[in-house]
Amino acid sequence: MMPMPHGPVDRQEVGEDADPERMAAFLLEMVRIPSPTGDSGAAARHYAERLRTLGMAVEMIEEFPGAPSVVARMPLDGPGPVLEFNGHLDTVPVPHAPPRREGSRVYGRGAADMKGGLVAICEAVRLLSARREALRGELLVVAHGLHEAPTGYGEDLEALVRRGVKGDAAIVAEGASTILPVIGKGNVVFEVTIRRDGEGTHEVRTPPGTPNPLLLAVEVARAMAARSRELASAPLPHVGPETYFVGMLHSGDFYNRFPTAAQITGTRRYGVRTGFARVRQELEELVARAVEGHDVVWEVRAQRDRDAFELDPLSPIVAAVRSAYREVTGQPLPLGGVSIVGDVSIFVNDGGIPAVYHGPQGAGAHGDVEWIEVDELVRAARVYVQAARHYLGGGPGAAADEASEQRRGHEDHQR
């Protein structure tokens, strides 16, 4: 059982004065600014200006053309840890109807993924800045624009982390609104190309025994499906088994011409103990076996999207967010995992700091119609306020008890 907060929680302390109209209006402004991956500069500048009006010291990092990063800081009342709020400004390059508000919903590309989270961060900063005398350390807000694959693979965030631009813990304001993931799969986007010598020829004029790259690509796909079935026998905690997925198979240029090449594209999702190097080796061995004995050449390209991660469930940021969620909603926030990859992996693996996903729940990410409820923006902002109070020293009681309860449960499980 997770502890309840110590007595009634002051409603102002949990962000009860979060302003839904302010957030809805700002979100509409943000989704009206197109920001496909690699071309998010206008959205970055608009977001940076809003952070400046909140009293943050803002820097624009222009290392990647077309995708500047926003880095904003707010010192609090005395020394302490740095809590980072993080999110991506870019959206998938998929057309969407013009942004609009209808009743309690805001529609537009990026509303759910993830400009809504960025707006909730701003509202939390506004509320926390008025109470900074009760907090220690620093608030750090980072927004970046190379998140969505295949145009971006988090290169900008990785570069910032390598330079030391990171908190002591981070909240990534995306997804996972009803669980707190402590494990996440990694993902490799692979491309397998199979080629034969010679030109494309009519099917009946092609010498017998000529290898057909298309059919060999099918054999590779079958081998991947078989490997997925093997992996299904060993599911990972919270996230299920590792997988292969074939999303595209291309070959040939006319219905009765013998093809000279074939290409398979898909994903390989994996756990921490597998790792990228092992995934690449497995891919190459699988393809080699599938085409063995045929006079073809083949190539495997493997692009790591994000690596797998595991987070210590006893981390203070885990306790802070779980306590905040209970105090704001009255409900527990169970531990879980994610199979979709994101930026927590970069913080945990490259930055060496604990990080959690927690964002406002939206709908239609990467879909035809994307939207988010204004009430979810309010809820997320309130959770961020209370989590910051716990982590930065403003309200340690419930979070400390949460961590203590987790530790006892973890020890009991170990025994």
Your description of this structure?
- By secondary structure, this protein is of the alpha+beta class.
- It folds into 2 domains: 20-184 and 309-414, Zn peptidases (Aminopeptidase, 3-Layer(aba) Sandwich), CATH 3.40.630.10; 186-306, Alpha-Beta Plaits (2-Layer Sandwich), CATH 3.30.70.360.
- Helices cover 35% and strands 24% of the residues.
- It has 10 helices and 19 strands.
- The chain has a 6-stranded mixed beta sheet with strand order 1-2-6-3-7-17, sandwiched between helices.
- Helix 1 (20-31) packs across helix 3.
Instruction: Indicate the overall shape.
Output: elongated
Measured between the Cα atoms of the first and last residue, the distance is 18 Å
Strand coverage percent: 15-25%
Radius of gyration: 24 Å
The biggest sheet, with number of strands, parallel, antiparallel or mixed sense and barrel status, is:
6 strands, mixed
State the secondary-structure class: alpha+beta
Q: Can you tell me the CATH class of the largest domain?
A: Alpha Beta
Mean pLDDT figure: 92
Strand tally: 19
What is the count of structural domains?
2
Catalogue the unreliable spans: 1-9, 395-404, 407-415
Helix content: 25-40%
| Major sheet strand order | 1-2-6-3-7-17
Quaternary organisation: single chain
What is the N-to-C succession of helices and strands? Answer: HHEEEEEHEHEEEEHEEEHEEHEHEEEHH
In CATH, the homologous superfamily of the largest domain goes by the name Zn peptidases
